[in-house]
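Subgroup meeting minutes
Present: P.N., E.W., G.H.
Scribe: E.W.

1. P.N. recapped why we're keeping a running log of single-chain structure predictions: easier to compare across weeks, and new members can see raw inputs and outputs side by side.
2. G.H. added today's entry (835 aa).
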Amino acid sequence: MASNVKEEDFTSGSRSVAYASKSSQAESKGMKNARSILWKHLHGTAVKTVVLESASYDYLTSQFDVTAQDHHKQLLHCPLQYEGSNYLWSTVVHSNIQDKSSIPENSTILNSVLGQNISIEGRSVMSHCNLVGQTNLHIGSQSIVSGLISEDLEPQQPPCAITLPNDIVLQGFHIKIPTLQGESKHQHIMTVFGKYDHLLDIFTQTEGPTYKGSSSYCNTPWVVFMNRTGISQEDLWDSTVPDDKKCSMNAKLFPLFHVSEYVGIREILWLAGDENINIDSNVLDRWRSSWRLSFEEILNFIDLQAEFQHRRKLFFEIAKIDIVNTLEGKNGADINKGLCNVYASAVAEGLHFEVLETLDQVAMETSSAGVAARTLANIADVLGCMARNNGGLRSGPAANKSWGRAFHLLENGSIREGVSAMSEERAKWLERPDLLVRAARHYEGAAQILIRHAVMSARQFISTTKSELPPIGRWVMAECPARIDLSGGWSDTPPITYEHGGAVTNVSVLYDGKKPIGAKARRIERPEIVLHLEGRELVLTELSHLEDYCQPYAPGALLKACILCAELVDFPSDVSLREQLLQRYNGGIELHSWSQLPHGSGLGGSSILAGAVMGVLWNISGQAYDNKSLIHAVLHLEQMLTTGGGWQDQVGALVGGVKIGVSKGELPLYVDIVPLDVTVETVQAFSDRLILVYTGKTRLARNLLQNVIRNWYGRNPDILATQDALVENAHDCAKAFEQGDLEKVGECMNKYWEQKKKMAPGCEPSVVARMMASLREHTYGMTLAGAGGGGFMYVLMKNPGGIGLVKEILSQIEGTENATVQLCRYRGNDIDNSA
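Output recorded in log:
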């Protein structure tokens, strides 16, 4: 801007004024200061003009013919609300209303707190009001109330019901009186006038309707107003005001002080003509003997800093109430409302510590681990905002020993104490952006702890019954298929699955013509636990050997977690491992596990393996179970292992065939499995067309998961919409299977892949995009397995027997040297158990 002018020339430039008019010295000085600010902030910024082809102009009346009716119309009938989906129109914006039944839908409320005792009639507007006291206030229809605070109403003695007449404008202003000293110069004053009053109309004593042209006050001709109140011209204007200058703007109407009595709302309502309030006989004398101001004087005395501070403070008071209601789901709040914009505003205004205290309070007082987890994640968002996009990446380690005490408390279920310890430690990490980001990582780590606790609520759906122990030496074996997810994945992921609800349609399949995952166990005479995995043998002879079960990369961690989840032994315990094994099994246990799936395949290997291991351990320890218990046990086990994860993997493989798994958006987390009624012909046609392609790329689901959870907790609108679409698509896919419509199934797979890319941007390697583009015309649908990013891709061909065609097409694509192609056979049975 102003690229062809020097700073001095710009700042001293003259103001455009009407012909033959001149700016005063004060105006010129103010203009120069304003131009200096513009130069400082905008000089060097490139500006261009753009034609708004579909724009329209909404005209306001001129300043000499303005009434409150124009403002009222804009707030009730803003033309933007009719512009379709481009705008979200709401009549209640950033407000807390304790009794929503008292607010008509056709009224507008902005940035206000309204207590139980406030009621409004239709088509009224309230803005920037904070009314939570004991006084009953009823606002008439078609009225405007702005800037009113509880202190304006409370000084009445005794309190009484207040009714504002229809079509009245009641306003409160923060003013600064320059002739007063100290804090007394800061005052709050109320004004009142009628919606149809023309405040600049010259005073006349003509009696008649205001629409006939007579000047008015509070929607009645001046003569009627004066007859009602006893007020005279001399009360309103002194002798220095000529008759042709007398108007509502310069009439001294509004009392500010009285030497011995309180003046305020009663006098204002008396001016407005409220017939319901008890007006004492001294009101006129009290009004006359008070120090009164006119609109003109009030506007000159407006304390803009105090006005903005009042609105800013009220905004964040409402924001804090909104934060609590949103996180706790109280008072009809939308739990899917995002709060990141509020946090960014709080940081910009320097009010982030108040927000952090509010979030601490929510996390400490809630009885829900799920709510506490979301709240800690929100604290991480505030800390991220405080870093102002500096300090490095949010995703990263959260293992600093300084946070260990707080993490330990949270792990043990002491949420209140743990959150308090987090807050104490946080205070030491606020000085630099890098420290803020590291603190945010630890809050996300703490949230993961509580997510695990929330998911562990699924344990109540695990039940086993006693059965006979198998003989020593007899092997018990379980073999499982892999699973492919056809639609709905990510909706099964905590916390999404228990906050939003999930649905996943998937199929159990063979890999390389066989079940790729399995486990076997047997009782042995030696009182020890022997683990065989990936060619290694681990012998556990002490309870301490089980301590690292929650460290996913520790040797045998998954198997150790299975042992504890299946409750083969008590841990921790004063009874040694040897003694427990002898007491319960008269010996020890030998356990083998295997998986022939490549690492990072996306076919659900680790969860399915956990299901197989849990199954054989329950059998070997004399516990009978059903599939529902096994599925929820795996969900619980993965939280013990600290790997997290959803429920679709075990549902897909431990329950055979085509099915849809469903969870509600609530805790405790329960997964319902619905096998689909699919004909033999549909199963055969599907199996003949399904091809499994290993992309040669190992996926990195953990990094994807961190970002997805962060976006979910931030209630990113795109993520919310995608979650709705994922669940809907899962049900559509299930319906298509039951109807035998494989083309529709393929459409659901394609849609699912697009949804996965929205959930986790970057999950599509470039080589995969080229592979899909080349195969597109020959397929009904394609998607990468699991979270994407690599691993396996499954392809539903239009015609059976297309494996040769797929191999030929992929062989011509650069970067597919490590890719493999095989038929993917449908598997209809549940987990195979044998002894």
